[in-house]
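Hello K.,

You asked for the raw outputs rather than the summary table, so here they are, unedited. I folded two proteins back to back in the same session to keep the settings identical. This is the first:
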Amino acid sequence: MFDYDEILSKAPVLTFEEAKKAHQHILSSVDGAGKDARELYNDLVNACISYANIRAVWSISTNKVRNDTDLKRTRKHDAVINNVDILERYLKQRNMDTGWRKIIGKERFGQERKRQGDFACYVAYICGLTAR
């Protein structure tokens, strides 16, 4: 069983509120930065959806399946971080707000890496709701 409050009590995860705030900042910056920024944002969204899918399946898989897919999951996580890096760099070059990166994390290891993965799951969740 999965319980959001229980997860929050056990691990330092990115909360829905934090993810929402970061996402709203991204959307605001992307809206002000033009067509190329929107394309980079779409690349990020695609990477997030791909990673969130494999992460969700991994969470309910057997140890054998986890071992077999672990490298692929890591690569998809790396792709999310790469796309976050690219979007942040593009927005900085245009003097747009990138304070959202402090919320989701910047490092490629430890808790900040995990928070960026959490953010990917949040973005995939929002995309799923948008498709209603």
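The second followed immediately with the same parameters:
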Amino acid sequence: MFLARVTGRVVASTLYEGMQGIALQWVQPLDDRGQPEGAQKVACAAIESGPGDLVEVVDGREAAVALPGEPFVPVDHTIVGYVTQAVAHGVDLAVEADPS
């Protein structure tokens, strides 16, 4: 499980059976200071979220079983929580950093 920032949406023209209606989003994993860590990933959204949101992401088998109504779909990452506040090192990570 890790914190990430949603950076965009993904549109797939073909989906695995059982994934119809599930939104796909780009997420950027964050370190403990809220800075990007590693490569961006594609995650299924089990909850409503959009670009700029701070979210909780599960990976591995938990990601595959976290989607509502589906016993198992082959996914590696699923957004399972919307984070309203996460303070680390005196910084609220839920507030998106000013890019300038």
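The domain at 2-90 is CATH 2.40.50.220 (OB fold (Dihydrolipoamide Acetyltransferase, E2P)).

Happy to rerun anything if the numbers look odd on your end.

Regards,
P.
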